[in-house]
Amino acid sequence: MTGILYLVATPIGNLEDITYRAVRILEEADLIAAEDTRHTKKLLNHLGINKPLISYHEHNKMEKGQVLIEKLLAGDGIALVTDAGTPGISDPGEDLVKLCHDHNIPVTSIPGPVALITGLILSGLSTRRFVFEGFLPHDKKERKMVLEQLKDEHRTIILYEAPHRLKQTLLSIKDTLGNRQVSMTRELTKKFEEVLPMTLDEAIKKYSQEDPRGEYVLIVEGKSLESIRDDRIKQWESITIEEHMNQYMKENMSKKEAMKQVAKDRGTTKRAIYQYLIEPSE
């Protein structure tokens, strides 16, 4: 009988946030796979748990992933933990989960703290719809490409960032997305937790005068649907209605379908587009 992979959430700063169930699974597991065994050892010592540990992180996931799969197939129960929070989010836990699915090995979650959700609910920004982007790419061109894709994103945007990259990230976001509202959150659940609602301009000014400390969760306001609509209308108004129609008809739309889409793009009626097209040009 195969074992089970348990994705065990651990505290993101306050040790009191460990759950009873997480403690039980860590006590019962045959093996604990950890992003940093030294860090996890401190948590286990605090809980009075003594279990074998194996490292599993971004740089050894190919090799150690196979080792863990073999142990699971042999019947071992394995608890996977990250340094803080829920494994599988912005870490190689997702790769191990996929391997388990490929080998028909059961996977279950032991839920608990998640930094991105904690930051979101404290932000004061919309929580109804949101998108999580993790860490932006280090490469300047790749980072610009990702931000361009988020330029018209109307959902709240959640990012992680390290202190040594925070200033450049704020500048990059402002350069592409404009001066949005942002919630700067750090040291979540800890004694010196900070939740700072401000604009990107204010954040850039703040961190040009002081050095960032700790890992940050950035909650960035999405673009309003009204602004997206207005920008698109301006974009279409820069070309003629005939050119606009031709763009859609080149995509094999019928004239009727193209008129309907052009009317929608320009915030007008299909009848108005039709009248324009049949009127003789002066």
Automatic annotation (TrEMBL):
<dbReference type="InterPro" id="IPR000878">
    <property type="entry name" value="4pyrrol_Mease"/>
</dbReference>
<comment type="function">
    <text>Catalyzes the 2'-O-methylation of the ribose of cytidine 1402 (C1402) in 16S rRNA.</text>
</comment>
<keyword id="KW-0489">Methyltransferase</keyword>
<keyword id="KW-0949">S-adenosyl-L-methionine</keyword>
<keyword id="KW-0808">Transferase</keyword>
<dbReference type="GO" id="GO:0070677">
    <property type="term" value="F:rRNA (cytosine-2'-O-)-methyltransferase activity"/>
</dbReference>
<feature type="domain" description="Tetrapyrrole methylase">
    <location>
        <begin position="5"/>
        <end position="203"/>
    </location>
</feature>
<dbReference type="InterPro" id="IPR014776">
    <property type="entry name" value="4pyrrole_Mease_sub2"/>
</dbReference>
<dbReference type="GO" id="GO:0005737">
    <property type="term" value="C:cytoplasm"/>
</dbReference>
<dbReference type="InterPro" id="IPR035996">
    <property type="entry name" value="4pyrrol_Methylase_sf"/>
</dbReference>
<keyword id="KW-0963">Cytoplasm</keyword>
<dbReference type="Pfam" id="PF00590">
    <property type="entry name" value="TP_methylase"/>
</dbReference>
<protein>
    <recommendedName>
        <fullName>Ribosomal RNA small subunit methyltransferase I</fullName>
        <ecNumber>2.1.1.198</ecNumber>
    </recommendedName>
</protein>
<comment type="similarity">
    <text>Belongs to the methyltransferase superfamily. RsmI family.</text>
</comment>
<dbReference type="InterPro" id="IPR008189">
    <property type="entry name" value="rRNA_ssu_MeTfrase_I"/>
</dbReference>
<keyword id="KW-0698">rRNA processing</keyword>
<dbReference type="InterPro" id="IPR014777">
    <property type="entry name" value="4pyrrole_Mease_sub1"/>
</dbReference>
